[in-house]
Each structure stands twice: as C-alpha cells, then as structure tokens.
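Entry 14. Structure prediction run on the chain below.
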Amino acid sequence: MHETAAQRILVAVLGWGAALLLFFPIFWMVLTSFKSEVAAIATPPRVVFEPTLESYAEVQARAEYLRFALNSVVVSLGGTLLGLAFAVPAAYSMAFHPTERTRGTLLWMLSTKMLPPVGVLVPIYLLFRTVGALDTRWGLVAIYALMNLPILVWMLFTFFKEVPKEILEAGRMDGARTGAEFRHLLLPLTLPGIASTGLLSLILCWNEAFWSLNLTSSEAAPLTAFIASFSSPQGLFFAKLSAASTMAVAPILVFGWLSQRQLVRGLTFGAVK
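Output returned:
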C-alpha cells in the first residue's frame, strides 16, 4: 500500500514536471512581451520588472493584426472544410468497400507526410504562379487541405472501422441508399470522431508556417507571416517579437483549451469496448 502511494506521487510529480517544462516557453514568451526591449535582452534574465504594453502598441501600429488574423481564420476553416469534404467519402469507401490495395494506399498516403515539403516547393510555386494562386486565400486553402488530407483520411478510416457493418447492412435491407445511410446511421455514430479530426486539422492549418511564408506576401498572409515580419537576423527586438507571437498564438490556445474535451473524446472514440 505504501509503495502504491509512493508510485502515485512519483507519477504525479513527473507529470506536473513534464507539463511545466512544456508550458515554460509559452510562459516566458508572454512574460517577455510585457518587458521593454532593454529588459528583454538583459543578462541574467529578469523575472521581476516593470510591465509595459509598449511592445503591443508598436506591433499594432506597425502591422494590421486583424487583417492577418482574419486571413488565418479563413484559410484554416477553409482548408479544414475542404479537406473533410474529400476525406470523409474517401475514408468511407476504404472502410466499408475495401479492396486488396486499400491498406497499401493508406500507408502510401501517410508516407507522403514524412517527406520534407521543401522538396516540392519549386514545382508547387511554379504551379501557383501559373494559375494565379500566389498570395491568395484560395491557394492557401487548397494547399492546406492537401497537406492534411493523409492524416484526415487515416483518422476517419479508423473511426469508421469501429462502426459495426451490421448496422449499415440493416439500413440497406430497409432500403436506405448511400446518402441516407451516411446521414442517418454513420454520421450520428462517428460525429465525435469527425469533430475531433476537424479540430486537429484546424490546429494544424493555423500553425502551418512553411507554405504560408513561401506562397504569400501581403494580401493573404496569415499570422505566421505576421510573426515573421518582426523577426530580426541580428536577434534584436525580442519584446516586439514576443508580443507578436503572443497575439498570434493566443486565439488557437484559447480555442484548444475550450475544445480539449471534444478533442479527447473524439480521439478516444472506440478505444474502450
């Protein structure tokens, strides 16, 4: 009994330690955003200082935050909805109408996520330039949807596989067609999984920086470009950079915190029998 209590205390300490370690960069970023530039580069770092909103005021005066934020919202939601529009029917067909090549196709789709995106930057950039998609919202929506499509299909495939086929077969015997079968049988059973997949895709789209920095310049630039505009190769302006970063990550942090229950519920869908 004593050993069990000691083990629980050890696990709790290790868990809290890991959580604090992961949270510390965010905490330090927010703390630095309220410092002056002199205090931000002080050595040793100052924990006690006089807070100021000077960096936030200068960031807002230099760049229009709301425009960048609106671009992030539009391209993230658009990329997620477009990705789900393709992923749901693809996962449905693979889960309930598999062929001998289904598993190989899924593994091939996942393997594409392991390739460095810089390897296809030049052809995609030239393609976007040809079709006029550079620095456009719809161009980012398309690339975000394609970027997350393998993960969306795989996650939805695992959720759909948890649904007993007998339920769908009973619906077909009652005369339900594919559309009615999906709306009235499959969708209510897998809605938590679809919702968690959409939430994960939204977070991935919001945090994507490589494609947004290389395929946009001003008109469609999201918050990742907003942060990059305050970076300095000399390593200066830490306070302004921290303020810009805090303004960029705050919305998705709040959204993730509010939706964590739904996300966990969906990701554990079908895990407990």
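The CA atoms of residues 213 and 225 lie 6 Å apart.
Filed with the rest of this week's runs.
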